[in-house]
Design brief:
- By secondary structure, the protein is mainly alpha-helical.
- It has helices at 8-20, 37-46, 63-87, 93-110, 122-128, 139-143; strands at 23-27, 48-49, 55-57, 145-149.
- The chain has one domain (24-149).
- The longest helix is centred in the middle third of the chain and has 25 residues, at 63-87.
- It is elongated and about 80 Å long.
Length: 152
């Protein structure tokens, strides 16, 4: 009986499919109940309006901006480094996702106060003492994290 030949391409494809069974969530944990950090995050990410449609808080997309920045500038390099390590068994799925999550969270946090965000109103600058958007006590910034669902 002939010996079954090893197919490295099929093995690599099988390993890559393992990555598809995981979900990486980035953001502020918890529900958006009134007074929570998650509510504050949602108000800044999407902005708020009053009943007449007048803007109260302008949209300052820090999460979507960070994800776009990762996808546009970092994802390819990240994949080039860590996918081969995963395929070779040098890192596990959970570690792969944890590394990616930490990288994305870092990018998002670095974006706080950046020029890509809608500037603070003069009244906000007077109250906070800074013109940097989303910078106050760093509670929101430090609350951004990642969660891996179904990681081994």
């Amino acid at each position: 009986m002939p010996e079954k030949r090893r197919n490295p391409f099929r093995e690599a494809e099988k390993k890559i499919r393992q990555l598809e069974r995981k979900k990486l969530s980035i953001g502020v944990p918890g529900g958006v109940e009134e007074g929570t950090v998650a509510e504050y995050a949602a108000h800044n990410e999407y902005g708020t309006k009053d009943d007449e449609g007048n803007e109260i808080i302008p949209e300052r997309s820090f999460l979507r901006w960070g994800m776009r920045k990762f996808n546009d500038e970092t994802a390819e390099k990240f994949g080039e480094v860590f996918i081969p390590q995963f395929i070779k068994g040098e890192i596990k799925r959970a570690e792969f996702y944890n590394l990616m999550g930490m990288k994305i969270v870092g990018i998002i946090r670095e974006g706080f106060g950046g020029s890509h965000l809608t500037p603070n109103a003069e009244s906000t600058i007077q109250r906070k003492g800074t013109d940097k958007p989303l910078i106050d006590q760093s509670i929101l910034r430090s609350s951004i994290t990642h969660v891996i669902d179904d990681a081994d």
